[in-house]
Amino acid sequence: MKRLLAVTALLTLTTTSAFSASSGTLLLQGSVAKKVAIAITPVAVASALDLETTQVDLKVATVNEQSNSKTGYKVTITSAQLGKLKRDAGSEVFSYTLKYGGAAVGLSTAAGTVFTNPSAASVNVNKDLAISYTGVAAESMIEGVYSDTLTLNIASN
Questions:
Q1: Residues 99, 101: Cα–Cα separation, whole Å
Q2: What tens digit of pLDDT does each residue of 40-55 get?
Q3: C-alpha angle 78-107-38 in degrees, rounded to nearest 5
């Protein structure tokens, strides 16, 4: 009986090693979350514009765009006052134009302007936001604070 058990044990060990594979596979996998972000860093002059002095392409902010979207992304720029500085508690307006990364921005409609980047590449870029306007003498305007709020949105395509 001891001999039978010893032979059975030996066959079991031999049989197990006979069925071992000569190769195998291992799946290594990770994931990267989508990141689409925008950050606006204003220049001090943005909140203290001299409306009496004509300005051409005066930098008012640096905008950082970040995207790793595989479909690219778009930046939409809109203006609460449709491209005009409006006097607080009044109806008087002061017209201006805007450039984003050197390209003209149309602000005269609620839709604003959309800049599209169709690239599937990872992007981390800074772009300047610049304002231009014709200065108006103080005696030709009503005193007060003239302002507009710009909104920049970024989204994947």
A1: 6
A2: 999 999 999 999 999 9
A3: 35
Could you tell me the pTM of the whole model? 0.82
Task: Dump pLDDT digits (tens) for 81-108.
Answer: 999 999 999 999 999 999 999 999 999 9
Task: List the chain domain ranges.
Answer: 36-156
Could you give the CA distance from residue 105 to residue 83 in angstroms, rounded to a whole number? 9
CATH number for the region 36-156 comes to: 2.60.40
Instruction: Compute CA distances 101 → 89, 104, 127, whole Å.
Output: 33, 9, 5
Of 69, 82, 74, which Cα lies nearest the Cα of 111? 82
